[in-house]
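Researcher: Sequence recovery benchmark, item below. Answer with residues only.
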């Protein structure tokens, strides 16, 4: 369905591959609300697992051939007149010139800016959209778009198919992605995953709080703060996020069949 047809459906919004009435409860809410779980757990949940599985399969199938990519987060509310919007365009273009695709949430604001920069520079522009009570349509600069019902499936795609994150100023959703990526890096679930914060004026207060409060109480280690880098330059952000992965060479194991020296 083309853009005009998608927007022309009255009273409907996207839910995965479906168009549903706008008053239809989002899948995430149905899954998480206690009343719904109590009422339907013995009937609907086993079938819901199949829907979740199919969403993983669709996401893997759509993004498997994307190639090297960087995921970029930021506010959907950023205006096109905002300096950060221009910086997002420049970052998208800088990543495209380095041969990297960009992956965003596919919506407006910073997501649109980064998609636009990559698209206009001839790079691959990917959008992973999410079902919301009020529809968030894919922006027109997305070359490859995937619609998701469940946040946790979408989050998996952001990490699985990216070599690093660049995080622009944003709200709760952006902060959620930031701290989830930090947790994955801190716990060793992802290795050498650059996390680049863009906009020193915006992030300065958070970083100071992490040092003065969280680090001071021993809740994190000093090295945990080194998981993030900070910049105000789109080219530098692209360079930080696309640094080559380190090569880990495992020492060879002895396979001679003879006891190791000193073994009993």
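Model:
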């Amino acid at each position: 369905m083309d853009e005009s047809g998608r927007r022309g459906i009255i009273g409907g919004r996207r839910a995965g591959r479906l168009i549903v009435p706008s008053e239809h409860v989002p899948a995430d809410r149905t899954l998480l609300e206690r009343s719904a779980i109590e009422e339907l757990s013995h009937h609907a949940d086993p079938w819901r697992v199949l829907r979740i599985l199919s969403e993983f399969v669709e996401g893997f199938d759509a993004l498997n051939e994307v190639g090297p990519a960087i995921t970029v987060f930021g506010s959907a509310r950023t205006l096109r007149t905002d300096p950060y919007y221009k910086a997002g365009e420049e970052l998208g273009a800088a990543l495209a010139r380095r041969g990297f695709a960009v992956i965003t949430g596919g919506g407006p604001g910073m997501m649109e800016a980064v998609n636009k920069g990559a698209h206009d520079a001839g790079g691959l522009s990917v959008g992973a959209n999410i079902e919301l009570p009020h529809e968030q349509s894919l922006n027109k600069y997305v070359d490859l778009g995937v619609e998701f019902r469940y946040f946790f499936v979408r989050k998996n795609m952001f990490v699985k198919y990216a070599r690093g994150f660049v995080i622009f100023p944003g709200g709760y959703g952006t902060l959620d992605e930031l701290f989830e990526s930090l947790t994955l890096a801190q716990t060793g679930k992802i290795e050498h995953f650059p996390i680049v914060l863009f906009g020193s004026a915006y992030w300065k207060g958070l970083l100071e709080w992490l040092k003065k409060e969280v680090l001071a109480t021993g809740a994190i280690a000093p090295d945990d703060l080194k998981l993030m880098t900070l910049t105000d330059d789109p080219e530098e952000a692209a360079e930080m996020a696309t640094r080559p992965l380190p090569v880990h060479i495992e020492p060879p194991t002895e396979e001679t069949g003879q006891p190791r020296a000193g073994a009993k």
